[in-house]
Amino acid sequence: MIGLIVSGHINFASGMASAVKAIAGEQENMVFIDFVETLSPDELEQQMRAAMDAMNCEQVLFLTDLPGGTPCNRAMAIMMENQFVEVVAGVSLPMIVNAAFEREGVDAKELLSILHDIGTRSIQDLRQQLAMTSETEFEEDGL
Hints:
Number of domains: 1
Low-confidence stretches: none
Order of helices and strands: EHEHEHEHHH
Distance between the termini: 55 Å
CATH class: Alpha Beta
Largest sheet: 4 strands, parallel
Radius of gyration: 18 Å
Structural class: alpha/beta
CATH superfamily: Phosphotransferase system, mannose-type IIA component
Strand order of the largest sheet: 2-1-3-4
């Protein structure tokens, strides 16, 4: 099983934690770390490393909120030292929930690829989809 560490600015991680718990239930080897104003970047990295050490996982995937933000950059620093760590930035709730469901039977790089696809597919223009559905219904009702 791949260990998952979700981190982001202010209450991003704790907000995602409550949503993931509601959707997927309690998750083993999944940690949520908020980067709050009272935490220094070094302290954040220490918490990330401690979370990794506490997991019984050969591979760890960091899921961070903002590309180039402190949680992403600190996770990248860890990744650069460890070939069994991967980082994905710009994550959304569909990506995080699916990470919990899809992390067995794949390696971290495969999981990252799956999550990238889910993230891309979950961005939808619903007005455009509604318009396409309406056009299809109109065509079906014609002649």
